[in-house]
Amino acid sequence: MRKDLNNEQCLEMLRNNYVGRLGYIFEKRPFVVPITYFYSEENNSVIGYSGKGQKLKALRKNKFISLEIDEIESIDHWRSVLVHGEFEELHQTEAKYLLHAFALGVEKLIAKKEKRELHAISEFSTRIIKEEIPIVFRIKDLEWTGKYRDQE
After folding, report:
1. Of 32, 28, 10, which is closest to residue 20 (Cα–Cα)?
2. Distance in angstroms (rounded) separating the CA atoms of residues 76 and 19
3. Where do the DSSP E strands lie in 90-134?
4. Which of 68, 103, 105, 119 satisfies CB 3.0 to 4.6 Å to 38 for a cystine?
5. d(Cα 34, Cα 72) in Å, to the nearest integer?
């Protein structure tokens, strides 16, 4: 039987993961794509980034989006959180600051969960030099709900 996660359990999942599925509307059709994200407790928002393309066009046009995070061990043992929020594109100093926080936060989560070290900041720097600068965004005004199933 599925049960509700309480507010703290939802928040724990959001802060302890870094891969989710972003839901948005583009040309009257729903899309769901995987993204790497970081939850910023400092301003209760989700930080992400994107290159130019369909997703960014859609987010600029319709700022209301969803983010789904799940942890699935089996058909009878899983947790899932659905976050709703508002897209906000960031610029200049704030974008650089939050991209830095994003990189450090994701590095820390990967080290904790996967027991391996990354150098995300140097990888971002190299990527920015080789490619175009990513667009940094925040998902703000967060609301969430969660469900779980835990049958032994």
Report:
1. 32
2. 22
3. none
4. 105
5. 16
Question: What is the SS3 assignment for 69?
Answer: strand
SS3 99: helix
Beta bridge partners of 19: 36
Tens digits of residue pLDDT in 73-84: 999 999 999 999
Tokens of 53: 């393309």
Per the structure, how many domains does the chain have?
1
Cβ atoms 142, 57 nearer than 8 A: no
What CATH number is given to the structural domain containing 122?
2.30.110.10
Contacts of 142 (CB under 8 A, 6+ apart): 44, 45, 46, 83, 84, 85
Apex CA 51: angle with CA 107 and CA 108, to 5°? 5
Do residues 65 and 142 make contact, with C-beta atoms less than 8 angstroms apart?
A: no
Residue that the structure tokens 């969803």 belong to: 66
Cβ-contact 38, 46 below 8 angstroms: yes
Q: pTM (2 decimals)?
A: 0.85
Q: Is 15 exposed, middle or buried (0-12, 13-18, 19+ CB in 10 A)?
A: middle
Q: According to the model, what pLDDT value does residue 76 have? A: 92
